[in-house]
Write a structure and sequence with these properties.
This protein has about 230 residues and is an alpha/beta fold. Helix content is about 45%, strand content about 10%.
């Protein structure tokens, strides 16, 4: 049975119930730019990408420069207005994360958010100093490029086989596959397990506590230098 020493989590739709707010903010920004609305399914399909990549996937006609920046600002401003009360953690997340920390796992976040947004939501949850490392799309590369995961592995001195990526989008699982690490598909976020199953996750869950139970039967692998 594979042992892990590092758990890496996506943020939106995996730890935090924020998908509805992302969909609403994207729609408001589109209207502000005079663009047609997209369906919930279409918007959910870009969640996980960095914001510029997400916008241009939904709206290829939005040009680089001022039009893209205006869309980004409209999206960000509306999302912030919805986040006066921070999006809640999914049931079981708070308790499980404390348990993972107590068990000796290193913990990380790899998200499509920008650094400013990630720092804000971490502070909102009281997690500013909780994770060993966090990586945001604007300081690395957008998913599914595995650069974020490589940077996390290097920081934590962990090999890919000893790390586990947990996410709710195809971009999360494809990023893990490209990095050579196992993944967990969560079916309560942006995409269904039927969609995520294509990426051959090591585990599929419909509740965060299922991940907690699965890991409870495993030993935490000691952290060694990469290559040892």
């Amino acid at each position: 049975m594979r042992e892990y020493s590092l758990l890496i989590f996506d943020w939106d739709g995996t730890l935090v119930d924020s998908i509805g707010r992302i969909v609403e903010a994207m729609r408001v920004a589109a209207v502000g730019s005079g663009l047609p609305e997209r369906s919930d399914a279409a918007i959910k399909g870009i969640i996980g990408l960095g914001l510029p990549e997400a916008i241009q996937t939904l709206y290829p006609e939005v040009e680089e420069g001022e039009p893209l920046e205006r869309f980004r600002l409209d999206y960000g401003n509306h999302y912030l207005s919805l986040e006066v009360q921070p999006s809640p953690l999914f049931p079981g997340v708070s308790e499980a994360m404390a348990e993972f920390r107590g068990a000796g796992y290193q913990l990380a976040v790899a998200t499509g958010k920008n650094r400013r947004g990630l720092d804000r939501v971490l502070a909102g949850q009281g997690w500013t100093d909780f994770f060993d490392i966090t990586r945001a799309a604007d300081e690395s590369a957008s998913k599914p490029d595995p650069r974020m995961l490589h940077e996390i592995l290097e920081h934590c001195r962990v090999g890919a086989r000893d790390a586990l990526m947990v996410g709710d989008s195809p971009f999360d699982l494809e990023m893990a596959r490209r990095a050579g690490m196992d993944s967990v598909a969560v079916g309560y976020g942006a995409q269904s397990l039927e969609v995520l199953r294509e990426y051959a996750p090591a585990l599929e869950v419909n509740h965060f506590n299922e991940l907690r139970a699965w890991l409870a039967g495993r030993s935490v692998k000691p952290v060694l230098e990469v290559g040892n």
